[in-house]
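Take a look at the protein record below and flag anything odd:
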Amino acid sequence: MKVITIKTRAMQPPQDDIYSLINESCLQAKERDVFIITSKILAIHQGRCIPINEIRNKDALIEKEADVFIPRCECPGEHVILTIKKHTLIPSSGIDESNANGYYILWPKNPEKEAKRICQYLKKKFSLKKLAVVITDSHCVPLRYGTIGISIGFYGLKPLKDYRGKKDIFGRILKITQTNIVDALAVTGVLVMGEGSERRTMAIIRDANFVKFTNKETY
């Protein structure tokens, strides 16, 4: 398996064009590639940016964007507001200030639909039949230091490998186990793309033989 990072210009808040970014890059997609893209540049593409100086109370914005939240005063150390957004446990509704040039960048809307649009665009651009797109964000694991990647939207692949009903090495029937393929790919992509000033906003995972491609929506 190969992981190829794609260095790009900086996407400019409050709005910029992700397709121009793709076309300006040195991207050369191949059959059975998995295209990894950070949610931040997708959010900037959508114009999901709010000037920081226009927001008096960031906590109110976080709570507005959250599906469910635990108030800051009830979170240990009061460092963050713990939220659930789009079925994902994440601090601060995913709102980000890093690499944002004075804006709060919100999570993109409809990331699954955007992943499908980008996937179809790349398939047409490179004349491909099998390709997948995964939209990623940085994510914190409770009781662990540091961030890892997580998928917040994808298209073109089956997200799980199902072991239920199969036998382990001693013949025991597995009842629960499913491997999370799409989040494992997200972790790999975010690791090589970085968290700072790298400007590696996209990556390609190539020759991942465990990925099952599909043209069906598999949310």
Observations:
- The mean pLDDT is 94.
